[in-house]
Amino acid sequence: MLKEKIIYKDELPINVVTASIDEYPIHFHDDMEVVYVLEGSVILRNGYYTYTLKQGDIFILNDREMHSFQKTEEDNIVMMFQMDLAYFSRYYDNLKNNFFVTDIEDDSDESLEVLRTLLAKIMMEILQKGYGYEHKVIESTHNLIACLLSDFQYFVMENGRFKNELKNKGNKILAGRLNRITDYMYDNYTRKLTLSEIADREHLSIYYLSHIIKEATGLSFQDLLSYIRVEESERLLLGTNKKIGAIAEETGFSAVRYYIKHFEQWFGMHPLEYRKKYIGKIISRDIAAQYTLATPAQIESAIRKQVKGIYADYADKLKIKPVIIDIDIYDDYAEIEKKPPVMSEIMERDVNKVLAEPYRKFMEMSEGIITSGENYIVSTKCKYPGALNSLSILVYNFDENAGRNLRKIMNKEDLLRIVRNYENEIEFLVRCTGLSGNFRIIRYRLEREHLLAKISGETNTKTKRSVRDNLINKLSSEAKVSTGNYISSDALSVRTIFDGIGAELILIDRV
Question: What's the CA gap between 503 and 431, in Å, rounded?
Answer without folding.
Answer: 18
